[in-house]
Amino acid sequence: MSSRPSPRTGPSPPPLPSVLPSPALPGLPRKRGTERDRERSGRRCVAARTEEARSVMVRRGRVELRRIEDRTSRQVRFSKRRSGLFKKAFELALLCDAEVALLVFSPAGKLYEYSSSLSIEGTYDRYQQFAGAVRNTYQGGASTSNDEDPSNLQSRLREITAWSVHNNADNADASNLEKLEKLLTDAKRALAKQNSNRSATGENSNGPTGEGGNA
């Protein structure tokens, strides 16, 4: 008969812990080598992005700006750029509390306008008052130039209106024509007011001089 070995009767081994200790305790500092590697990699990424941005700027700087020959491409580009222009104007008015007014005529002669105030006419009237005040301040008895002549300004406005009507002959838009006519009327009123102010200023300046001569 084969005899089986008797089991050992010594003490049993200690039980394994249920949770193994983590290799890195939260209280211990991290390795400096890892932080340095991260800083170096971050600097390399920033340098690479800066170099890429410079190359893009150089490539964009070499692009020649000129008129787009294809009509369809020109209309598409105008629509995109117009939207971007109006968006920038809105951001400028909102962020900086500025009064902005834009008048844009499309290649087909269609009028697009934007105003941060209640109406673009109000901004135009404000511009006329400011321009008149500046001219009166720096006039100093000198004759006005051709660009400041009211008749010249009226003729230019008439030319713009005639050009817009001619280009809108195929696609006539009554609302756009009414807006142009209103702008022309407002311009005439502003010019008439400016002329009256100039005549009043001339009378006031000539009055004391005449009295002094009679005395």
TrEMBL record:
<keyword id="KW-0238">DNA-binding</keyword>
<feature type="region of interest" description="Disordered">
    <location>
        <begin position="1"/>
        <end position="48"/>
    </location>
</feature>
<protein>
    <recommendedName>
        <fullName>MADS-box domain-containing protein</fullName>
    </recommendedName>
</protein>
<dbReference type="InterPro" id="IPR050142">
    <property type="entry name" value="MADS-box/MEF2_TF"/>
</dbReference>
<feature type="region of interest" description="Disordered">
    <location>
        <begin position="191"/>
        <end position="215"/>
    </location>
</feature>
<keyword id="KW-0539">Nucleus</keyword>
<dbReference type="GO" id="GO:0045944">
    <property type="term" value="P:positive regulation of transcription by RNA polymerase II"/>
</dbReference>
<keyword id="KW-0805">Transcription regulation</keyword>
<dbReference type="GO" id="GO:0000978">
    <property type="term" value="F:RNA polymerase II cis-regulatory region sequence-specific DNA binding"/>
</dbReference>
<dbReference type="InterPro" id="IPR036879">
    <property type="entry name" value="TF_MADSbox_sf"/>
</dbReference>
<dbReference type="GO" id="GO:0050793">
    <property type="term" value="P:regulation of developmental process"/>
</dbReference>
<dbReference type="Pfam" id="PF00319">
    <property type="entry name" value="SRF-TF"/>
</dbReference>
<dbReference type="GO" id="GO:0000981">
    <property type="term" value="F:DNA-binding transcription factor activity, RNA polymerase II-specific"/>
</dbReference>
<dbReference type="InterPro" id="IPR002100">
    <property type="entry name" value="TF_MADSbox"/>
</dbReference>
<feature type="compositionally biased region" description="Basic and acidic residues">
    <location>
        <begin position="32"/>
        <end position="42"/>
    </location>
</feature>
<feature type="domain" description="MADS-box">
    <location>
        <begin position="58"/>
        <end position="118"/>
    </location>
</feature>
<dbReference type="GO" id="GO:0006357">
    <property type="term" value="P:regulation of transcription by RNA polymerase II"/>
</dbReference>
<keyword id="KW-0804">Transcription</keyword>
<dbReference type="GO" id="GO:0005634">
    <property type="term" value="C:nucleus"/>
</dbReference>
<dbReference type="InterPro" id="IPR033896">
    <property type="entry name" value="MEF2-like_N"/>
</dbReference>
<dbReference type="GO" id="GO:0046983">
    <property type="term" value="F:protein dimerization activity"/>
</dbReference>
<feature type="compositionally biased region" description="Polar residues">
    <location>
        <begin position="193"/>
        <end position="208"/>
    </location>
</feature>
<feature type="compositionally biased region" description="Pro residues">
    <location>
        <begin position="8"/>
        <end position="26"/>
    </location>
</feature>
